[in-house]
Specification:
By secondary structure, the chain is α/β, with parallel strands linked by helices. The chain is built from 13 helices and seven strands.
Length: 359
């Protein structure tokens, strides 16, 4: 079983952090990022929103299979996994408390409007999000929750970190939880990694940067996109009825077609932010009282928004966490977070979208 977990938040750089920590000789990160073991007490659901049923099939919910993820870990390492949906799921947090009461937990928080926009763009670019307007899609959240759509569709709820952390601290002592801002991963990657290593009790000064592991593309809402997206959602629904089929098997080719000429994630305007900030404002005040840090910059206009690193590097696809990855310990060319230059990136998984200062 793991010694530590990266438990949140989705679209806040957790995949890049997972890859970075795997490069430390004293840390062993599961080959499958986001095994989602603690999200259920048995088999995961079989229904939900577009694509959910296929994604549920990738959950590692049997304990022997979960424990086997850490079997290759050397005796001198601390074992970790990253499932950023844990923070949002109170039942998952209670399961973690019961199974791993001494585990150390890492939480990354990001400007909730930017996080929600990145989340929406992720699903839109995959052809799964049927609403082509971000603000309007956020307005669908309550209806989707009532219909049983998976938590990754909860654009607003996932960004209410105050209430999530307040509950977490009823289960775990504060000394077992490290809360970091996403912007620190962007602006101060080496210092942030040293802070995490100190929290985990392993050598500092070993990790110098955080590799890019998630550039979300932004296809235009053309007639072709709408048609292929409709086919994608229909294919996901049909695939849910076919035993043994996974999301990648059925919908991967359509997703690659959708994203073949995509732009980088586009900026949000102040008007869009103004429409959404009231949904987060009470929780941002709560977050300040819970962690003792000021997050009022999240309530103000942003000078820059969206992806700052350009379009997705050639050969990369959308997130496919929940599947075995190539060895994370092998050095590979990477592009660092922030504006440190872009180089070739290992294909196949998420790449963080750096956002400066107000994050």
């Amino acid at each position: 079983m793991p010694d530590f977990l990266v438990i949140g938040a989705p679209k806040a750089g957790t995949t890049a952090l997972h890859a970075a920590l795997a490069r430390h000789a004293r840390l062993y990160m599961s080959a499958i990022k986001e095994p989602k073991f603690f999200l259920s007490d048995g088999p995961p659901p079989t229904k939900g929103g577009p694509g959910d049923a296929l994604t549920y099939r990738e959950h590692i919910w049997r304990r022997p299979e979960y424990e086997a993820l850490f079997d290759p870990s050397p005796a001198w390492t601390l074992r970790g996994e990253s499932t950023p949906l844990y923070l949002y799921d109170r039942a998952a947090l209670r399961r973690i408390r019961q199974a791993l009461p001494d585990a150390k937990l890492i939480v990354i928080v990001r400007d909730p409007v930017e996080r929600a926009h990145s989340n929406w763009t992720h699903l839109w670019s995959a052809g799964l999000e049927p609403v082509d307007d971000f603000v309007r899609a956020c307005g669908e959240e309550e209806r989707r929750i009532a219909a049983g759509w998976a938590s990754f569709w909860h654009y607003v709820g996932l960004g209410r970190y105050g209430e999530q952390l307040e509950y977490l601290f009823t289960l775990f002592p504060r000394e077992q939880v490290l809360v970091l801002r996403y912007r620190l991963m962007v602006d101060e990657p080496a210092q942030t990694l040293d802070r995490i290593c100190a929290f985990l009790g392993v050598e500092q000064g070993v990790l110098a940067g955080i590799p890019r592991h998630n550039v979300t593309s932004h296809p235009e809402p053309t007639l072709a996109h709408r048609a292929v997206s409709l086919a994608q959602r229909a294919g996901s629904a049909v695939g849910a009825l076919v035993p043994g089929l996974t999301a990648a098997t059925l919908t991967g080719p359509l997703e690659r077609f959708l994203q073949r000429h995509s732009r980088e994630r586009q900026p949000l305007g102040w008007q869009q932010r103004q429409e959404l900030i009231p949904r987060f404002e009470p929780d941002i005040r709560l977050l300040r009282s819970v962690v003792g840090e000021d997050f009022s910059d999240w309530l103000r206009p942003r000078g820059r928004s969206g992806s700052l690193v350009g379009a997705r590097p050639a050969g990369q696809g959308q997130a496919r966490n929940g599947r075995a990855r190539p060895s994370l310990r092998e050095p590979s060319p990477s592009a660092e977070l922030g504006e440190q230059g872009v180089r070739s990136v290992r294909p196949g998984h998420l790449v963080v979208e750096p956002v400066p200062a107000a994050g």
